């Protein structure tokens, strides 16, 4: 079919093609996920050079091709300059882009996914340093919710009993089961997987070869502390308790005061394993997340 068409899209991936072109993977409002060639975009002074960059939103005029369509015109709407100025923001954006790629459909409108993702990038680009990781966790949860697979956070996924974080009981813990779909009491967790002891949610590098439910290395059950459960339960809220609004969560089972910031790493890790399991895909940017945020913790006083 010959002709041209117009779409509004955001660049999710870019690969060199030929001597001077780029092959772009684009999420569009009108036609969902698509691939198109940005002809000559790698040439110096190309009018498509900056417009073919990562996370740039463009109005596009595209010519149909036999195998791949070609971008003939592009008008930039937004480029999220704040992302490229902070490695952690850029890495978090790449992480979210992978989740978008897992769930985006082709040849049908994806306006809700497009608007959610672009709003998430806008929030990240303007975020303060201490807000990046909480925003990443909330954005991951929102993408899971849009896909219809968000974990259950406020009641036991086995018994349906309401679960609230207990900051008064020494060594209080609650379970989280990735296969079962969310938080659960430790008794219920024992019924689900009686032969496997859940582990504390420690921040660690993903093992090479992990692949969702097919991996024997992926951790699928966790023990969460009260602050970690509290952090998870904040994710559906419009406003997250971050920075000055973050409570100091004193615990009898801890030797020192525990702040909510200490729990966002665990929150991201739980959601990471949950997403990898339910999408049955590895989040490859997760290794960069580990490197960025683990380094920042080591440098903090």
From TrEMBL:
Involved in DNA repair and RecF pathway recombination. Residues 196-216 are annotated as: Disordered. NCBIfam families: reco (TIGR00613). This is DNA repair protein RecO. Belongs to the RecO family. The keyword DNA damage applies. The keyword Cell membrane does not apply. Residues 1-80 form the DNA replication/recombination mediator RecO N-terminal domain. GO terms for biological process: DNA recombination; double-strand break repair. It holds the Pfam family RecO_N. GO terms for cellular component: bacterial nucleoid. Keywords: DNA damage, DNA recombination, DNA repair.
